[in-house]
Amino acid sequence: MSHRNSPLSPTGRLRLARCVVKDGWPLRRAADRFNVSVTTAKRCADVYRESGPAGMGDRSSRPRSCPHRTSWRRERRVVGLRVSRRWGPARIAFHLGLNVSTVHRILNRYHCLRLSWIDPATGAPVYARRREVRRYERV
Question: How many C-alpha atoms does 30 have within 13 Å on its Cβ side?
């Protein structure tokens, strides 16, 4: 998000595009006038030609797709192994041929608790209070 008087605010982009498209300014002159690069000026002009004044607003920079994301089926296998066998990320990664960091990220995405926070027999969450922590004392 830019400040009001920025040359690349939505209003500034609209002025730049109108100078190029409607008034017929050369791209280099418009870019110098608005203190931006020629490629930025061309991009603004192309968006204005395509979408009009409505296209000059700020757009999301989030990618529309991620072709390398782990498939839904494989994510479900990771979570299934965690729930059924109570394996850690390293063991699941070895079993499925994935990276350990990928398995850890999937487990975090599905809000799987750490193995130290789960009862080994039932799989139910165990909440330990600080006062109940066992300590070894030498007598």
Answer: 25
